[in-house]
TrEMBL record:
<protein>
    <recommendedName>
        <fullName>DNA helicase RecQ</fullName>
        <ecNumber>5.6.2.4</ecNumber>
    </recommendedName>
</protein>
<dbReference type="GO" id="GO:0006310">
    <property type="term" value="P:DNA recombination"/>
</dbReference>
<dbReference type="GO" id="GO:0043590">
    <property type="term" value="C:bacterial nucleoid"/>
</dbReference>
<keyword id="KW-0238">DNA-binding</keyword>
<dbReference type="InterPro" id="IPR018982">
    <property type="entry name" value="RQC_domain"/>
</dbReference>
<dbReference type="InterPro" id="IPR044876">
    <property type="entry name" value="HRDC_dom_sf"/>
</dbReference>
<dbReference type="GO" id="GO:0005737">
    <property type="term" value="C:cytoplasm"/>
</dbReference>
<feature type="domain" description="Helicase ATP-binding">
    <location>
        <begin position="24"/>
        <end position="193"/>
    </location>
</feature>
<keyword id="KW-0413">Isomerase</keyword>
<dbReference type="GO" id="GO:0009432">
    <property type="term" value="P:SOS response"/>
</dbReference>
<dbReference type="InterPro" id="IPR014001">
    <property type="entry name" value="Helicase_ATP-bd"/>
</dbReference>
<dbReference type="GO" id="GO:0009378">
    <property type="term" value="F:four-way junction helicase activity"/>
</dbReference>
<keyword id="KW-0233">DNA recombination</keyword>
<dbReference type="GO" id="GO:0046872">
    <property type="term" value="F:metal ion binding"/>
</dbReference>
<keyword id="KW-0479">Metal-binding</keyword>
<dbReference type="GO" id="GO:0005524">
    <property type="term" value="F:ATP binding"/>
</dbReference>
<dbReference type="Pfam" id="PF00570">
    <property type="entry name" value="HRDC"/>
</dbReference>
Length: 608
């Protein structure tokens, strides 16, 4: 069986991405397998392609109801009959779809996990010929995962008891080794059938902007990328509303999305973004889990997310088409307090709260680190990659590296002399020598480290403590009021066994600095293709999308349009050679796009 030929005919791609073919072969052999791939890494192909080959139905279980319609529309657009059944489907429509599925005309059925544990639905499902069960976003099954949902575990035994011994495929984009091991145990996937392709996104530039005026930065950035699609994530609904109003007042065509809006408004705002009616949307993290929009060029985080997993999943929504994209975190240490508050107010037990605080601390370390940002992410997910990305903020930072061992020893010594019983705020005040901690019952003024940083500000001292914590020289305890503790690495510094180096600090005023945003050309424009033709093809794509009431990227991705501009196809055979064009797309759109390219070329020659 020539899987590459099927990939081209059905989906328009010439070659598989890393791990895809290996997973597909295990599925076609009737085995249980698990794929751990980054967002935008091509997970869907791993069950969509087998569905076109296997004799029965492919059952796709996903917690993301909003994503189901997009996936079904995309599959039907390439001629693969698919449908979904969830709480959004009215009963009369549901009955019609079920009869259609029973006839064998449907190849993929998308359902929510809650449907599996419904007795009536499960009884109906048991009567179907199911060849493959695919579980998307599988990390929600693990108690060690960032979005654990206990109710979803209830569906596993019913799925295992379905007749016919179908193949299994679990997929996730964010699984630490601990989560991976838990999923393998729950789903009974052998180690040899776990395919981990790596979390690195070579087209994604990770950036951190510290101590900037956030509103000004966002406005300048959006204006600099006015014709490109982007998502701005904010932590709270009121922040979403504020940013939305601010951008709108400044002439930006912007949307918003959060749980406080009506269902109708959320649907409208999401559709406007998907259909390119608005290029930028401001949202809480409730937005995006169900978005498969391929041409998002940037993701801005107005506030720091609570976990590395959530952060990387959210930034992964940029550049899903493989073209250059940016993810920028606007970091202010005060944002961590909001997460601390929500953790303390949560209903979980102490162990659960501690796990969230540990994840928040890892996010804090990321925001403060000076190593390659992509390398930090890869290390977190267990990939020991020594290479640096060369495109993140830290890799591009050319500040001089200075030895700060002496200052680091002073901080670490102070923590020890204070019996490792106090937090950052108190330690900072002792180091700077503040009077309010000098003469109380604790007698801090008698410490040799009291006032040792007399010439430094509290904020400067606090940033140094953050640096030492983020880089493993200090640890923090759990609890509502975390205290600073000396780590083994910090002890080695005190003993003179290792030195501490840091990039030279820029002169910072106490106020927020003005943001500087370079006015970049569109990120997809690399000079290797005709941007005017690209815009013509985008307009034609939009016409088809509006006629068919589907999102433009479902017809052709920006990457496919770019390839057309490079190849300049003149006939059907050449058009079929374009990446992302299969036989079905050729039949549907080939003549129109070839005509548009031909007319553009002729007009260009006439003008010249």
């Amino acid at each position: 069986m020539n899987l590459e030929a099927i990939l081209k005919d059905e989906f328009g791609y010439d070659t598989f991405r890393i791990g895809q073919k290996e997973l597909i072969e295990k599925i076609l052999d009737g085995q249980k397998a698990m794929g751990i791939m980054p967002t935008g890494g091509g997970k869907s192909i791993c069950y969509q392609l087998p569905a076109t080959i296997l004799p029965g139905l492919t059952l796709v279980v996903s917690p993301l109801i909003s994503l189901m319609k997009d996936q079904v529309d995309s599959l039907n657009e390439v001629g693969i009959p698919s449908t979904f059944l969830n709480s959004t489907v009215e009963w009369h429509d549901r009955e019609e779809r079920m009869r259609y599925i029973e006839s064998g005309a449907v190849k993929l059925l998308f359902v929510a996990p809650e449907k599996i544990v419904d007795d009536e639905f499960y009884s109906w499902l048991s009567g179907l010929e199911i060849s493959l069960i695919a579980i998307d976003e599988a990390h929600v099954l693990s108690s060690w995962g960032h979005d654990f949902r206990d109710s979803y575990l209830k569906m596993i035994d019913p799925l295992k008891n379905l007749p016919g011994s179908p193949a299994w495929l679990a997929l996730t984009a964010t699984a630490t080794q601990q989560v991976q091991n838990d999923l393998a145990k729950i789903l009974e996937v052998p180690d040899k059938n776990i395919i981990k392709t790596g979390f690195e996104r070579n087209n994604l530039a990770l950036k951190i902007e510290r101590k900037v005026d956030k509103d000004e930065y966002v406005l300048n950035y959006v204006k600099a990328h006015i014709d490109e699609s982007g998502i701005i994530y904010a932590g709270r609904r009121e922040d979403v509303d504020s940013i939305f109003s601010f951008l709108k007042e400044n002439g930006i065509k912007v949307g918003r999305y959060h749980a406080g809006l009506s269902d109708q408004e959320r649907h409208t705002q999401q559709e406007d973004f998907l259909f390119d009616k608005t290029n930028v949307i401001v949202a809480t993290n409730a937005f995006g889990m169900g978005i498969n929009k391929t041409n998002v060029r940037y993701v801005l985080h107005y506030a720091i997310p609570g976990t590395i997993e959530n952060y990387y999943q959210e930034v992964g929504r940029a550049g899903r088409d493989g073209l250059p994209a940016e993810a920028i975190l606007l970091y202010a240490p005060i944002d961590l307090r909001l997460h601390q508050f929500f953790i303390d107010q949560s209903l979980g037990d102490d162990q659960y709260k501690m796990s969230l605080k540990n994840k928040l601390f890892d996010m804090h370390r990321y925001a403060e680190t000076e190593i390659c940002l992509m390398k930090f992410i890869l290390d977190y997910f267990g990939e020991k990659n020594t290479d640096v990305c060369g495109r993140c903020t830290n890799c591009l930072d050319n500040r001089q590296i200075v030895d700060i061992t002496s200052d680091a020893q002073k901080v670490l010594s102070c923590v020890v002399r204070m019996d490792q019983r106090y937090g950052k705020k108190t330690v900072s005040r002792v180091l700077v020598g503040k009077e309010d901690v000098a003469n109380d019952w604790r007698n801090f003024q008698e410490l040799s480290t009291f006032g040792i940083f007399k010439g430094k500000s509290l904020s400067e001292t606090g940033r140094l403590i953050d640096f030492l914590s983020a880089n493993g020289f200090l640890k923090t305890s759990g609890g509502k009021y975390p205290i600073l503790l000396l780590s083994k690495k910090g002890a080695d510094v005190l003993k003179g066994k290792i030195n501490v180096a840091r990039k030279e600090e820029l002169n910072r005023s106490s106020s927020k600095r003005k943001s500087k945003v370079s006015i970049n050309k569109p990120m997809v424009a690399d000079g290797s293709f005709d941007m005017d033709l690209f815009e013509k093809l985008r307009s034609l794509r939009l016409e088809f999308a509006r006629k068919q009431a589907i999102a433009p990227f479902m017809i052709f991705s920006d990457k496919t349009l770019k390839d057309m501009c490079v190849r300049i196809p003149t006939n059907s055979e050449e058009f079929l050679a374009v990446s992302g064009v299969g036989k079905y797309k050729l039949e549907q759109y080939g003549d129109s796009f070839l005509e548009e390219i031909k007319n553009y070329q002729e007009n260009k020659q006439t003008v010249s």
